[in-house]
Backbone:
């Protein structure tokens, strides 16, 4: 089944403890992105990647890192999480600029 | 940046009713998608529709790109249709979706 897989689905962590949210797609998509969703602020892009080893900042990149060493994987790294990074996170992928995006099931992160 | 506006913000329907959701978008939007966010938070892709009309079961969508709007039609609504419906515009480079603020739909028995 064609899909974007995120893990974990739920995570509660403490301030300052490094964590990684994994994202993997099995559709050979070039484009991948991370978004966060917050009440009143909607969905905002954190980082995106248009190909292997090519990543760039979205609208809210502060406090996050990403890497794209393989086409299928696009992990989101929080080096030192803070409570303001408590959010619902989505990974998404697309074949190219002229195709729609497929989203993962989301990761609910709580930083205490 | 691009702008995407949705209406209405909230909608309550009786099961079996039909509804139309609207999305207006700015000139720089090349392509448009509709999503449904279910009560569990999952974002489900409904339509990728830069122009024209598409149908999938009880749902259909029409985008009139020259007039910068898109419509999502829900017919014979069911309680499982409840949730938030988002439209999102894709910028020229294809690397970013800008989401509207959504339409919160509740379908009651």
Residues:
């Amino acid at each position: 089944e064609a899909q974007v897989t995120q893990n974990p689905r739920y995570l509660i962590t403490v301030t300052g403890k490094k964590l990684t949210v994994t994202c993997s797609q099995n559709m050979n998509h070039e484009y991948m992105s991370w978004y966060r969703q917050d009440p009143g602020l909607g969905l905002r892009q954190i980082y995106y990647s248009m190909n292997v080893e090519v990543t760039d900042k979205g609208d809210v990149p502060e406090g996050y890192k990403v890497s794209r060493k393989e086409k299928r994987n696009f992990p989101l790294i929080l080096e030192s999480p803070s409570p303001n990074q408590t959010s619902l996170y989505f990974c998404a992928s697309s074949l190219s600029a002229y195709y729609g995006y497929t989203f993962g099931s989301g990761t609910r992160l709580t930083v205490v | 940046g691009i702008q995407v506006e949705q209406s209405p913000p909230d909608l309550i329907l009786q099961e079996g009713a039909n509804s139309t959701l609207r999305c207006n978008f700015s000139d720089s939007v090349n392509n448009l998608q509709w999503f449904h966010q279910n009560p569990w938070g999952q974002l489900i892709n409904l339509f990728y529709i830069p122009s024209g009309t598409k149908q999938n079961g009880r749902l259909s969508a029409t985008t009139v790109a020259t007039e910068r709007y898109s419509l999502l039609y829900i017919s014979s609504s069911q309680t499982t249709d409840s949730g938030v419906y988002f439209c999102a515009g894709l910028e020229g480079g294809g690397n970013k979706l800008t989401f509207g603020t959504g339409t919160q739909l509740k379908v009651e028995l």
Notes: Chain B touches chain A at residues 30-31, 33, 35, 41-45, 47-48, 86, 88, 90, 92-97, 99, 101-102 (CB under 8 Å). The two ends of chain B are 41 Å apart (CA to CA). Chain B is about 0% helix and 60% strand.
